[in-house]
Amino acid sequence: MCSSLSSALSPSAVVTRLRAAGCVFAEDEADLLISAAQSPDALASMVERRVVGLPLEHVIGWAEFYGLRIAVDAGVFVPRRRTEFLVAEAAALARPGAVVVDLCCGSGALGAALATAVEGAELHAADIDPAAVRCARRNVGAVGGQVYEGDLYEPLPTALRGRVDVLLANTPYVPTEEIGLLPAEARIHEARVALDGGTDGLDVQRRVAAAASQWLAPGGHLLVETSERQAPVTVETFAGNGLIPRVVASDELYATVVVGTRPAGSPHTPE
């Protein structure tokens, strides 16, 4: 099948097949697929995987994020462009040499991007999904960071307690009953654990916020991405856990981020 297809897959043929499959940016995707393919048969196979619905990033094996090429393995959450806003906000808060933790790290895109932007950053990342951890070790390791497998803070070195300057947590925030409304690319091909935030979408955020003050340095910051609709509840959650919250948003990227700062003079929160 591939051999017969490959002879027909000129650049214009690739564009035509992608457009027929509903790919909005068919020309751009065709360029990426053609440049990534090692042979005509490989191109045919990649086009087939794309037209049946696999995310482009899973097909070519990487995503562009914050100016970096981030490896993205099959089944791993694809970093969204809107999340670049979270990284930019974190970069504005981070000093050189900052201790950075990327929780629910997925591919490790956020941590890798922030470590690239902040001189001398000490990066640690964690995820509960073994496939995500394997992928993140490639991206985070490339910038000198460490990745741990486990649930939220559980696998982190205890020496990080009270030392974290910037805590990134791109937690899942889609309410369970809305998972079925997601595009098929996400719903079928990304890990459910990276999408499902529980009844109101904020279950994981609550758990992150509840323990954040144990890990943040005085004056340290927790940043999470959420929706405009959910942000007021996230603000209440942060405040209820001793953090000073504020909301920042990007109309261009349709992104909402809540930043929670541990007061500079606050004592450690007991476990």
Low-confidence stretches: 1-7
Helix content: 25-40%
Shape: globular
Largest sheet: 7 strands, mixed
Helix segment count? 11
Q: What is the number of E strands?
A: 9
What does this structure look like?
It is a single chain. By secondary structure, this protein is an alpha/beta fold. Helices cover 38% and strands 20% of the residues. The protein has 11 helices and 9 strands. The strands form 2 sheets. The protein has a 7-stranded mixed beta sheet with strand order 5-4-3-6-7-9-8, sandwiched between helices. The termini are far apart.
State the gist of this model.
This protein has helices at 2-6, 11-20, 26-36, 40-51, 56-60, 84-93, 109-117, 130-141, 184-189, 203-215, 231-240; strands spanning 62-65, 68-71, 99-103, 122-127, 146-149, 164-169, 216-226, 244-250, 255-261. Helix content is 38%, strand content 20%.
